[in-house]
Amino acid sequence: MEPESSDFEQGHVLNGLKSASEVLDDYLDSIYNLSSEVVANLEELRHLDEQCEKLSAICKECQEKYFACIDSDQKDEDGKSSSYWKNMAEKYFEEALQKQDEKIAIADNFYNLLTRHFERLDEELARNNIHIDEVLENEFEPHEPVYCVCKRPEFGHMVQCDHPKCETGWYHWECVGLSQQPSGQWFCPDCEFIQAVEPNPIESIMHAIENFAMYSYPGQPIDDFPLNNTPFNW
């Protein structure tokens, strides 16, 4: 039987959980307001990305025309010289760099915005004397038996391994990749491996009898031996 905790300890835990719940509700409310700021920042980043791509494409085109004028040592069909295209390439390159700087500034603001919200949650937890580890430890009873590969208590849908020597026994569906109760026998991953490498005792005995018959009566066909009429109920 599990030891009973005192009223003081139970009240302390309940108060802690209630405070944690209240802090979480307040924090979720602030996230709803945060979402509009997040969307605005992401939208601005997307817009700047599009502008950078356009400016980069124009800059590349100006560079190509500049090198074409250099190679031909004359102006292009529009009468523009290599120096003109060089100045234009530099102009659009600077504009693209400016957009990149704006993207970095928005990303920094975005990061600081999220950091402030995380810090606010930490401050609220500390102000209410809430320790996350203590809340998580009280999620399950300390002496509750654990199962499965995850070593957690019983919850949700579970399945039992049919191997008689399975050390774990029961498994949560999601931990072993199940979405419904398996039909027929089911073996956990460990026992499935054991089943694959473990010799079948009946097959081993039959194989031993066949070997004895062949070596004891080398001239007699194996089919002459009544192996199918053995006194054992296979």
From TrEMBL:
<feature type="binding site">
    <location>
        <position position="175"/>
    </location>
    <ligand>
        <name>Zn(2+) 1</name>
    </ligand>
</feature>
<feature type="site" description="Histone H3K4me3 binding">
    <location>
        <position position="170"/>
    </location>
</feature>
<feature type="binding site">
    <location>
        <position position="188"/>
    </location>
    <ligand>
        <name>Zn(2+) 2</name>
    </ligand>
</feature>
<feature type="binding site">
    <location>
        <position position="166"/>
    </location>
    <ligand>
        <name>Zn(2+) 2</name>
    </ligand>
</feature>
<keyword id="KW-0539">Nucleus</keyword>
<keyword id="KW-0862">Zinc</keyword>
<keyword id="KW-0863">Zinc-finger</keyword>
<dbReference type="InterPro" id="IPR019786">
    <property type="entry name" value="Zinc_finger_PHD-type_CS"/>
</dbReference>
<feature type="binding site">
    <location>
        <position position="172"/>
    </location>
    <ligand>
        <name>Zn(2+) 1</name>
    </ligand>
</feature>
<dbReference type="InterPro" id="IPR001965">
    <property type="entry name" value="Znf_PHD"/>
</dbReference>
<comment type="similarity">
    <text>Belongs to the ING family.</text>
</comment>
<keyword id="KW-0479">Metal-binding</keyword>
<comment type="subunit">
    <text>Component of an histone acetyltransferase complex. Interacts with H3K4me3 and to a lesser extent with H3K4me2.</text>
</comment>
<dbReference type="Pfam" id="PF12998">
    <property type="entry name" value="ING"/>
</dbReference>
<feature type="site" description="Histone H3K4me3 binding">
    <location>
        <position position="158"/>
    </location>
</feature>
<feature type="binding site">
    <location>
        <position position="161"/>
    </location>
    <ligand>
        <name>Zn(2+) 2</name>
    </ligand>
</feature>
<feature type="site" description="Histone H3K4me3 binding">
    <location>
        <position position="162"/>
    </location>
</feature>
<dbReference type="InterPro" id="IPR028651">
    <property type="entry name" value="ING_fam"/>
</dbReference>
<dbReference type="GO" id="GO:0005634">
    <property type="term" value="C:nucleus"/>
</dbReference>
<keyword id="KW-0156">Chromatin regulator</keyword>
<dbReference type="InterPro" id="IPR024610">
    <property type="entry name" value="ING_N_histone-binding"/>
</dbReference>
<feature type="binding site">
    <location>
        <position position="191"/>
    </location>
    <ligand>
        <name>Zn(2+) 2</name>
    </ligand>
</feature>
<dbReference type="GO" id="GO:0008270">
    <property type="term" value="F:zinc ion binding"/>
</dbReference>
<feature type="binding site">
    <location>
        <position position="150"/>
    </location>
    <ligand>
        <name>Zn(2+) 1</name>
    </ligand>
</feature>
<feature type="site" description="Histone H3K4me3 binding">
    <location>
        <position position="147"/>
    </location>
</feature>
<dbReference type="InterPro" id="IPR011011">
    <property type="entry name" value="Znf_FYVE_PHD"/>
</dbReference>
<dbReference type="InterPro" id="IPR019787">
    <property type="entry name" value="Znf_PHD-finger"/>
</dbReference>
<dbReference type="InterPro" id="IPR013083">
    <property type="entry name" value="Znf_RING/FYVE/PHD"/>
</dbReference>
<feature type="binding site">
    <location>
        <position position="148"/>
    </location>
    <ligand>
        <name>Zn(2+) 1</name>
    </ligand>
</feature>
<feature type="domain" description="PHD-type">
    <location>
        <begin position="145"/>
        <end position="194"/>
    </location>
</feature>
<protein>
    <recommendedName>
        <fullName>Chromatin modification-related protein</fullName>
    </recommendedName>
</protein>
<dbReference type="GO" id="GO:0006325">
    <property type="term" value="P:chromatin organization"/>
</dbReference>
<comment type="function">
    <text>Component of an histone acetyltransferase complex.</text>
</comment>
